[in-house]
Amino acid sequence: MKSKSSSLEASVSVRVLLPNAFHKHTNGAREVQSNAGNLPELITEIETTFPALKTHLRDEHGQVRRFINFYVNEEDIRFLGNDKYAFKDGDEVLVIPSIAGGCCSCCSYCGREDCACC
After folding, report:
1. Is the CB of residue 16 less than 8 Å from the CB of residue 30?
2. What is residue 16's predicted lDDT score, i.e. its pLDDT?
3. Residues 2-43: pLDDT tens digits?
4. CB burial string 90-99: b at 16+ within 10 A, e below
5. Cα 26 from chain centre
6. Strand pairing category for 92-97 and 14-17
7. Alpha-carbon span 57 to 71, nearest angstrom
8. What is the DSSP code (8-state) at residue 107?
9. Rounded CA gap, 106 and 113, in Å?
10. Mind listing the domains of the chain with CATH numbers?
């Protein structure tokens, strides 16, 4: 999984760890290497490589789902600048979906009753 950064900066290599819940949508891939320069580029790259993940990462308005969290080197990316954070060579990015449930018949992963993700 490689992409060209939209900036003229040197290319970075980022290790992306995918959660178990995503593995059936990634042909079993647990991690990928990326050359994305920032979070929006990374999300687009993941969606391009694994199209089945798009509905799990973004809502119907194209926004990242509120229960999908990204951590860079174990630090919540929201505290690092979120979309403005520029990945550095060797960064490790964790994709963490918050999972809750047990109160209704809807999917605890995506929140829909008629989902096909689980």
Report:
1. no
2. 97
3. 444 444 456 889 999 999 989 999 999 999 999 999 999 999
4. ebebbbebee
5. 12
6. parallel
7. 15
8. -
9. 4
10. 14-97 (3.10.20.30)
**pTM for this predicted structure:** 0.75
Give the whole-angstrom CA distance, residue 53 versus residue 36: 17
Alpha helix (H) residue ranges in 50-118: 54-57
Listed in sequence order, the residues at least 6 apart from 9 whose beta carbon sits closer than 8 Å to its beta carbon are 37, 86
Nearest to 111 by CA among 61, 59, 53, 69: 59
Residue 88's identity, in one-letter code, is K
Tokens for 20? 């178990």
For residue 96, give both structure tokens.
């963490």
On whether the CB atoms of residues 96 and 16 are closer than 8 A, the answer is: no
Q: Are 60 and 91 in contact (CB under 8 A)?
A: no
Q: Which H helix or E strand runs over 48?
A: helix 39-49
Tell me the C-alpha distance between 47 and 67, whole Å.
17
